[in-house]
Design brief:
With 263 residues, the protein is mainly alpha-helical. Helices cover 59% and strands 3% of the residues. The termini are far apart.
């Protein structure tokens, strides 16, 4: 049995080369950067202990271990999220230099919420095939399911996703920051007219109280309801309710749409 001390440089390089991919897969499967980090730690420990001569395809092995671990976690999370106080929301991903992932709509809170409609295996099959471009044979081997069943999983996943609100656009980071600053300034100055311009008419807002308190018992649906809530929070609690830049990041992440663009 190997340990960290006798891992070769080549073994470490193989894992590091797959790290961004594995994190991206785990994050999209679990909707939590914290859980994704934990999964990577577990994968690395298994990678340390696994005799390398038994691994013919390191990338496939790492992907399989990652996917199966995430599926197990999704199943265990199902009950806790069902009993969750208030609305459970995915943890927004923020780019870091350590793990470089191309920013796209599949990293958005809105897309991750759509994925919550899928079963664990549907979610895994859909992501592996349609997002990460693995063929059905590879998906079949990872999920340890028949080829035809994996096709059914992907088809069902596509159908469920097609029934949800469309992701209309992915904004450049600079444009996102412009919206964030405008939103923050509108709240800080209690400028409801400006705030109204930033919110689409069919906006939905939910708040995650960490499973301990219900910040908003039920999601607010439509612009007037959201405006009333934000106005009350702004005047009664001021910036302390949101906290500096988190004011914008949190609300943009929790609401489904701003100017009809899912973020």
């Amino acid at each position: 049995m190997q340990n960290q001390q006798n891992l070769t440089t080549h073994d470490l390089d193989l894992f590091q080369a797959s790290r961004a991919f594995l994190f991206g897969l785990a994050y999209r499967l679990l909707g939590s950067t914290h859980d994704a980090d934990d999964v990577l730690q577990d994968i690395f420990l298994k990678w340390q202990m696994q005799p390398k001569e038994e691994i013919l395809n390191p990338q496939a092995w790492l992907t399989s271990v990652c996917t199966r671990h995430c599926i197990d976690l999704l199943r265990s999370h199902h009950k806790s999220r069902t009993e969750y106080v208030g609305t459970w929301l995915p943890e927004p991903y923020q780019h870091t230099e350590q793990i470089s992932i191309e920013s796209d709509y599949t990293l958005s809170t809105a897309f991750l919420l759509v994925l919550e409609k899928l079963s664990p295996k549907e979610r895994a099959a859909y992501l592996l095939h349609d997002i990460f471009n693995l063929d059905y044979q590879e998906v079949s081997e990872i999920l340890q399911e028949q080829h035809s069943y994996c096709r059914q999983l992907v088809v069902r996943g596509r159908k469920r996703i097609s029934e949800q609100p469309k992701v209309l656009s992915t904004l450049p980071t600079s444009h996102q920051m412009t919206l964030l600053n405008a939103f923050r300034d509108a709240i800080h100055s209690h400028n409801l007219d400006q705030l109204k311009k930033l919110l689409s008419e069919d906006i939905q807002l939910a708040a995650d109280g960490g499973g301990k308190v219900s910040a908003i018992p039920q999601p607010l649906i439509d612009q007037p309801s959201v405006l009333r809530f934000l106005s009350a929070c702004s005047f009664r609690l001021g910036m302390s309710f949101f906290g500096k830049y988190a004011i914008s990041m949190a609300i943009l992440a929790l609401s489904y749409m701003i100017n009809n663009i899912i973020v």
